[in-house]
Amino acid sequence: MNILLLSMPDSSEHIPSLVVRMPNGALTSLAGNVDPHHKVAVADLILVQQRVRETVARLVREFKPDVVGLSVMTFQRRTAKKIINLVRSVAPAARVIVGGYDPSLAPDAYTDLSDGVDFIVRGEGEITFRELLRAIENRSGFDKIAGLTFRSGDRFYQNQDRKISSLDSGEIRPPNRNTRVLRGYTMLGRPVDVIETSRGCTFDCSFCSIIEMRGRNFHTYSFDRVIADIRDAHDHGARAIFIIDDNITLNVKRFEALCHAIKNAGLNSIDYTVQAMTSAIANHDESLTRLMREAGFRYVFLGIENILEDDLQFLRASSKNASRENGRRVGNATIKAIDHIHRNKMYVVGGLILGNPGDTRESIKANLDFAKRYVDWPYIQHPTPYPRTPMTKDFRDRGLIVNERVEEYDGTTAVVRTEHLAAEEVEYMRWRAERRMKSRHMPVAFLHNPLFVLRNAPKMLAHTYRGSTVKSFLGLEDERKAFARYRALRNLERDYV
Prior knowledge:
Elements: E1 2-7, E2 20-21, H1 25-32, E3 39-44, H2 52-63, E4 67-71, H3 77-90, E5 95-99, H4 101-105, E6 119-121, H5 126-138, E7 148-152, E8 155-158, E9 186-187, E10 190-195, E11 198-199, H6 210-214, E12 219-220, H7 223-235, E13 240-243, H8 252-264, E14 271-276, H9 278-282, H10 287-295, E15 297-305, H11 309-315, E16 322-325, E17 328-332, H12 334-343, E18 347-353, H13 361-374, E19 377-381, H14 390-398, H15 423-440, H16 442-448, H17 450-464, H18 470-473, H19 479-493
Parallel strand pairs: 1-3, 1-4, 4-5, 5-6, 10-13, 13-14, 14-15, 15-18, 18-19
Antiparallel strand pairs: 2-9, 6-7, 7-8, 9-10, 11-12, 16-17
């Protein structure tokens, strides 16, 4: 069969396509796990944001897919349904499958018969997708395939959940990057790819969708497989790699061993970006961050979440941000972790969440002031009621959700209010402070890739300061007018199809 796999074009405000165009690792993993006689094409639509409709129509006409699969996050739901309608208009006989976080956690959002969906793959998709293709090909039944919701007649039927793979059995095969039919994945001008070394997390943060999809667990791939995957990404042109593990620093000894393996394999000339807990970085001596730098790590996405204990309690993130001495908790680990990272010439992408129920103007300002002082690149988000997370129930019970338009659930649009501030005011405070922080990182980007910055600095600054005018820069108009223009532009950007 011919199989076309699509990721959605919608991107977060924090990841403008000019600066970062990251591949969807789930799609190449699906492609690597189907039976080899199938012909698979993977298209990351982030690469064609300005020409989504014509690209999808062309791919469907040229590839003539029997099956079209879409990977969807919650804020991409509206776009996904438009693309399904487009696919149906060009290839009405194609089977349409949706998967990813949103269909997994909110399958009912895709069971309206007018949506045109045939199958929903819930949770980890590789084995479920493989078995589904075999069933379609053999014209056998679908009711025994774990992790599948399927349409029969005018009804949908939901099978039992699929057990989480332990990853060590070889059941999930490596990704197939040869199936990509679009090109241009970059991070600050360098060709980029993604790899994973583990899946899962044992913490229970209230904002996290991962534990809702797979429970609290942690499973790992062998280093032989990981190193082979890095080599494959490098052979396909990658000079920067984002390690997409849910929480690689759950096992610091393993992470240290991975750094040694990367060095020993001679793959430390690649720029690596990784997500890490503050406690894991801070509660080990500086040898960990020194080793990370030697292995090629450049950016560390640090899950700071918040610097105030009350907010950390609400986010259920206190323990993963705790500093400990002699087995006792002695405060927040954030500053110590940042110091370790900076002293070893790496940069902190600071993940914070602002706009929690108890937040006041003062508490938000405290976090923003902290980010200005310590963070190299801000990744500040607002709490967002994603399907089935504990946070969502909490906000709904308190009546704090003010926006049900899921296309705006991108993390940087405030869709919940606090008990003290309107959602729009929370978003304005972040927007006003954050764009100055982003500008401050420009010299660092220039030192690393001067040609890219010289070519694109005007566009980068224009994106960061969207909505601003000469009058607003000179203080001749209220900045809130610039904010209103920014929000209007952001709304226009969401219309991809």
